[in-house]
Amino acid sequence: MPRILLHICCGPCSIAPIRRLQEQGFEVTGFFYNPNIHPLMEYKRRRDGALEVAERMGIRVIVKDEEYDPQKYFRAITFREQNRCFHCYAMRMERTAQIAGRGRFDRFTTTLLYSKFQKHDAIASLGRDLQVGCPAKFHYQDFREGWKEGIEVSKEWGIYRQQYCGCLYSENERYQNELRNA
Questions:
Q1: pLDDT digits over 87-124, tens only?
Q2: Band (166; pLDDT cuts 50, 70, 90)
Q3: Residues annotated in the binding site, as ranges?
Q4: Residue 111 burial by CB count (10 A; 0-12/13-18/19+): exposed, middle or buried?
Q5: SS3 assignment, position 62
Q6: What are the structural domain ranges in the chain?
Q7: Band of the pLDDT at 170, cuts 50, 70, 90?
Q8: 47 sits in which H/E element
Q9: Contact indicator for 112, 142 with CB cutoff of 8 Å
Q10: pLDDT for residue 165
Q11: Among 68, 81, 8, 84, which residue's Cα sits nearest to residue 35?
């Protein structure tokens, strides 16, 4: 059975990708590494949601709480705010590829390919670039087909569902209308 390391951004986004990968015969291991998530309590809610989904779906998850470092994220995107998503993807996917290579996984991928709000082509291209020289190969799959399934199941299971991508910038964009309407 081929082993795949799945970068997980949150519980709801992991449901459909885990199911699809398991249906394809992969032994799935999750990887929760998200230094972009702000604030810390939001990070903890998303981590706990990812762990709850993993338990329900019978997969192991590698959690890198000791590497939670929003300052690293801010340093990576400072003066690059217009292209911040690419740098955020790169930070998380580079670490995923490193762990996959060291852990002797056959493949690696990400739940970022599930969200209809992410820059799908940039994620796929980055994954293909990261597999060069890496023992684990990037597994491209458009998980967006499971969008409604992930929403419905996460609601049914009572998994924490966030309202913004994760970073301070996306939180501000999500809620800025509330300032205008106050």
A1: 999 999 999 999 999 999 999 999 999 999 899 999 99
A2: confident
A3: 9-10, 85, 88
A4: buried
A5: strand
A6: 3-180
A7: low
A8: helix 40-57
A9: no
A10: 74
A11: 68
Q: Give the residue ranges of the annotated binding site for [4Fe-4S] cluster.
A: 9-10, 85, 88
Residue 169: pLDDT band (50, 70, 90) is low
The label of the residue with tokens 């690696």 reads 108
Could you tell me the strand order of the sheet in which 27-32 lies?
A: 60-63, 27-32, 3-7, 107-110, 137-138
Total length of the chain: 182
pLDDT of residue 180: 73
Q: d(Cα 136, Cα 118) in Å, to the nearest integer?
A: 23
Task: Give strand ranges (E) for 84-141.
Answer: 107-110, 137-138
* Answer CATH for 3-180 from 3.10.450.710, 3.40.50.620, 3.40.50.150, 3.30.2010.10: 3.40.50.620
What digits encode the pLDDT tens for the residues 11-37? 999 999 999 999 999 999 999 999 999
Give the tens place of pLDDT for each residue, 32-49.
999 999 899 999 999 999
Q: Is residue 52 classed exposed, middle or buried when 0-12, 13-18 and 19+ CB atoms within 10 A define those classes?
A: middle
On the 0-12 / 13-18 / 19+ scale of CB atoms within 10 A, 138 is buried
